[in-house]
Amino acid sequence: MRTPLICTLLVAICLGLSGCGFQPDSHVTTETRDRNRQAGFVSLFDGKTLNGWHPVPTQAASDWSVQDGAITGHGSANRLAYLVWKDLELTDFDLRLSYRMLTDGNSGVEVRAQPDTSGKRPFEGYHADLGHVGIGPRILGAWDFHFARRKEHPCHRGTRLVIREDGSTTSSKLDPSKALALADVRKRDWNHLQVLARGNHFHFFINGKLAAEFTDNARQGRLDHGAIGLQIHDKGMRVAFKDIRLMRLREPLPR
After folding, report:
1. Residue 39 confidence (pLDDT)
2. Does residue 187 sit within a domain?
């Protein structure tokens, strides 16, 4: 006598959930989206498509795809290839994502990226450098400067750099008890990246540890706005990115 009643209740519950838009294979994505919204973050990647992103140069379009819920970059040539988010006027923000080096290689995230009119590179920008464990402190966890005409000072992992108004610099070492150590980076596994851009001050974190930071006080050539771009560098390398989310810290500059 109870079986028909139980079946009826189960059918009613399933229909109710369906009517509310419940999908068993997407509830994790929904929870993540809700958590991001509550925290002020916006997701830049839907886990399925490259909507909102475009390749630079266009010839590198086939280097980028979505595999197993992650954006995957596969270098087809020794060149700087980017996947660029559609908002080209970002100023201050908190960017967070997960990345995984699937092979040896050089990768990273370009911020405040603007077209390099000199032809030296596709972009001028501030580059949060990534690479495989063992590539060295000049790349993994370092800031790399992509300037058309300015001097590109080193800001290796474990460094705090200040660029003065006249372009000269001072640098110091981060507190080793708080800074990123090589042992903090997971080889061939997912690691968490955070880039915090506030005015002319930039922090780069991996797995919650400060990797490098800099302040750009230069009177000429400072980058105050620009795009975000994922990068691949080497032929044959593979890297994956997921859980990409952004929180604006102020409105875009008027143009």
Report:
1. 75
2. yes
